[in-house]
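Example noted here:
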Amino acid sequence: MSAERVSSAASRAGRSAFAAAAAVALYTAAGYGALLYAGLDRALACVLAAVGGVAVAALAGQVVSRSEQRNRERKLAKAQLETARDRLRPRPALKAAMATPPSAPSATEARERRESREIQTALLPRNVPFVDGYHLEVDYQPCGDLGGDFYDFRRYEDGRLLFTLGDVSGKGPAGAIVMAMVQTLFRENAGAATGPADLLHRVNEGFTGAIGKGVFVTALVGLLDPERDRLTLAGAGHHPVLLLNPGERRTTQIGPRGLALGLVPGERFVNALVETTVDLSPGDSLLLYTDGATDSVEHVAKGVGEHRFLAAAVAAILAGPHGALQRLREDLWQGGGRRDDTTLMLVSRVGGISPASAPASRTSSSLKV
């Protein structure tokens, strides 16, 4: 506090004390005179006047004290208000930072992103395997530099083919790390697993609790036996699989039960798993997809994204399995609009009707699922 403020405060305090003392003296003198006029003895009048003066002094002190307290409270509130205003008022440096557009990534950052993308891409299969009597396609479209979707294939010596498809709950670098971890767990356990459900159980045991709460992965595992034309499916909280037979113009959604990976361990996860076996007829096609396929579709805010996607998928497959995923992508996302990683996988048994003899309705707008 400056010397001027100290002097001003002392002056105000002195004036207040002088005014209070003068008021007490005036009241005491007036009371003494009134008591004498009433005929009281001088000594008694003096005592009573003094007592009254003390009472007035005490009352005046309380009044002054309360007044000063209110003044202090008002000053404190005013000071707090000014402090709050100062905090809310943008600083020049902050204003400049807000007005400056975000800078482009540096050469080092761009190189790191490119290298990370290359490493993640290397974890995915380089080629789709060939299975006699079947046609397989995969379309993988990450939304950013790094994706959280994954897929994989494993061929067994007896000719069976295992395929996996999954979606990590996170995005960006964190999602990419989890993706790599889970895909590694699938590869390490695929040889010892007795089937899709057992493989999901083994992966869940290795994944649950390894990352932390709130991180989970949805996944589908399929085991194709081309000798018997049979497919066994198991899911962990993933979307249903679309089964389409163009000849019979029949569509079915197969939804294997199961909890997402990483939510619960042990028996609770195992008890929720159910394997589904499908006998594939000539021309049957199975479409597996991650949630980016339905979340990114036009009109998704109106709740029709999945219906739009399924109708477009049926239209694309009716034109023939070869190139179906490219036609589906062009139908849905020709104007962009993807908000999440998107992975599509098509497994079709060769045979049945040819594309030339397929039903005429091949546009997504004319089909209902």
